[in-house]
From TrEMBL:
PANTHER family: PRESENILIN-ASSOCIATED RHOMBOID-LIKE PROTEIN, MITOCHONDRIAL (PTHR43731:SF14), RHOMBOID PROTEASE (PTHR43731). It is found in: Membrane. Gene3D superfamilies: Rhomboid-like. Pfam families: Rhomboid. The lineage of its organism: Bacteria, Pseudomonadati, Bacteroidota, Flavobacteriia, Flavobacteriales. Keywords: Hydrolase, Membrane, Transmembrane, Transmembrane helix. It is a multi-pass membrane protein. This is Peptidase family S54, Rhomboid family protein.
Length: 249
């Protein structure tokens, strides 16, 4: 088993400190989780701090296990500074893609409401109070209404976007590495597991909604896709320019 590397160790400690602190001071989520930029709750530091906030023990346990499992290997080959740059970049990329998708849904539904005589100031005033106008549901489809309210009122937390970037990087560097997956009796090569998992899990839920069989997942699938996308673009650029072999210690 790969020995834990310095930057990964520091990230684990920071995540654990944030998690314990957020459990002791729940109001911290209002300041450190990532809000929609047009929401008054948005703060400029949230694209960074949301990466260290988690919603429960299972959430942080899964992300930290993945950070340790894949991150230590990557840091060993890249060096600490290069690994940290990649990790933070993927986390920021996750936030950016999630915002872009949410903004599209938000603006699309807002335009429909404005075209039907509603006033933007009144709409946002109600949303900021945690309220809705029931007439919106008569104008918007169920999907449009859901995406509109979730985009504006929802928050994003977790290291998952950055971790998805690590999965992509690991697959780039070790495509034939065999991964032991829980509930699957045989190991699967990274080059098969990672893309299939992302397509089936995040691709499906991202396209068809965050619910399946009537159960809300509560997962920011577009943030996952964003982290993976930025990880892919960085790895592609590094490989193309033979930069992937350089270390930043």
């Amino acid at each position: 088993m790969m020995k834990i590397t310095p930057v990964v160790k520091q990230l684990l400690i920071i995540n654990i400190i944030f998690f314990i602190g957020s459990q002791l001071v729940p109001v911290s989520y209002e300041y450190l989780a990532l809000f929609f930029p047009e929401n008054p709750g948005f703060k400029f530091w949230q694209p960074i701090t949301h990466m260290f906030m988690h919603g429960g023990f299972a959430h942080i346990a899964f992300n930290m296990f993945a950070l340790y499992s894949f991150g230590s290997t990557l840091e060993h080959f890249w060096g600490g500074k290069k690994f940290l740059f990649f990790y933070i970049s993927c986390g920021l990329g996750a936030a950016l893609v999630n915002f872009a998708v949410n903004y599209y849904f938000y603006q699309d539904s807002l335009n429909i409401l404005l075209a039907n005589g509603f006033n933007k100031t009144d709409i946002l005033s109600l949303l900021n109070e945690g309220k809705i106008d029931t007439r919106w549901q008569q104008i918007l489809t169920v999907s449009e209404f859901k995406h509109f309210t979730e985009a504006y009122l929802g928050t994003v937390i977790g290291a998952s976007g950055a971790v998805y970037g690590l999965l992509i990087a690991f697959t780039f560097m070790f495509p034939n590495a065999e991964l032991g997956i829980m509930f699957i009796p045989i190991p699967i090569k990274a080059k098969y597991f990672v893309p299939v998992y992302m397509l089936l899990f995040d691709g499906f839920f991202g396209i068809f909604g965050s619910s399946f069989m009537g159960i809300e997942s509560g997962i920011a699938h577009y943030a996952h896709i964003g982290g993976a996308l930025f990880g892919f673009l960085i790895m592609w650029y590094w490989k193309k320019n033979q930069f992937n072999n350089n270390r930043w210690n």
